Sequence to fold (370 residues):
Amino acid sequence: MVSDFHFHLPDELIAQKPLAARDGSRLLHLQRTSGHYSDRLFGDFPDMLRPGDLVVFNNTRVFPARLYGRREGARAQPVSQRNPAARDFLQGRIEVLLTRQLSTDPNDWECLVRPGRKIGVGERLLFGEKDELQAEVLARAEFGERRIRFQPSFQTSNDFFAALDRIGHIPLPPYIARPDSSRDRERYQTVYAQQRGSVAAPTAGLHFTQEVLDRIRHRGIETAEITLHVGLGTFQPVRVDQVEDHKLHSEPYFISTNAASAVNRALRNSSRIIAVGTTTVRTLEHAIRVGAGTIVAGPAAADLFIYPDPETGFEFKVVKAMLTNFHLPQSTLLMLVSAFGGRENVLAAYKHAVSQRYRFYSYGDCMFIE
Fold:
C-alpha cells in the first residue's frame, strides 16, 4: 500500500534555502544489513569509501524551465484579493513549467501549466516584458500536461535557450515556499553539471564541492558520470492506493563509452558501485536490464519503477551503496530508497532524522546507505 510509506514531517524541517557551505550538511549513515544508523557529517563521506569503489554521478544540468507570462488577449479585471488563482486567470497570468523537449527542434515542448483547467488547445501564450517568446497550445495530455510550440523570432536552438536563460526561472520544487533567486541559479545545480536538460536537480549531488571530489580521487577512488534528465516523473504524485499500480513517466538518459566501461569493469571485479542519487540508481538498474547483464553505451529512456515488492522484493544488479537526500512521504523516491535499504530500516532512520531535526528535501541533509 502507498500508505505504508507515510511518515510525519513537521513543516519547519523542510529546507527552504541552501546552507552557506555546500558540504556543510549532516549525513545519516544507514547500514542496511543490520538496520544500524549513526549521525555523521557529509564531510566524512570521502573517508567512508573503500579502495576499489566506483562512485557514479549524474551530470545533468538544470535549466531555467519555469516561465511566467500571460494569455494573449486577456484583459485585467478587478477581482477579490482573497482568490489569487481567480485573479491570475482573469488578468491572464500564467505559469508554464517545461518538462520535456519533444524533438530535436528546441521549440517543441511538453509542459505543465497553471491555471491548468483554463488554458485550452489553440490558446497563445506570451512570455517576457517584450513578448520575447510566444507559444501556441497544440494538445492536451493524460494528466493535464500540454504540448506547446514556441514561435520566437529566433532560428537556432542556441538563440532559444539564450532567451530562456534571460527570462526563465529556476524551477524550485513546490515545497520551497519562496520565489527563486539569483543564488538558486548556482546552488540548485551540482558543481559537475554539464548536460542541459533537467527541470529538477539530482539533489544528492548538491553537497559536493570540487574539494570533496578531489579528496575522493586522491584516495584512489574511481568515478564515472552518466546523464539522466529529470522530467515530469519527479513532480508526478502517486494517485493509486496500490504501489504496483503506479506507472512512471520515462526519462531520457545517456551513458558514455567511458562510463559503461567503468561500470562493467567494476561488475566484473565485484567492486562496490556507489550511486550518487536516486536518478543514478534508476539509470544503472534500467541499463543493466536493457543490456541483459551488461551496461551498453548510448541513449535510452528509463521507466523502471523501483519499489519493495512485498513478495519478491527488488534485485539491485548494479548498485551496492547509495548517497541520497531525504524524500517526500509516499513518494516514488522514498519507495526506491526503501527497496534498497529496507522499508522498516529506512522509516526508522527517517523517524530518527525527524527527532534530530535533520533538514529535508532538495536543500536538506543526506543519507549514505550501504
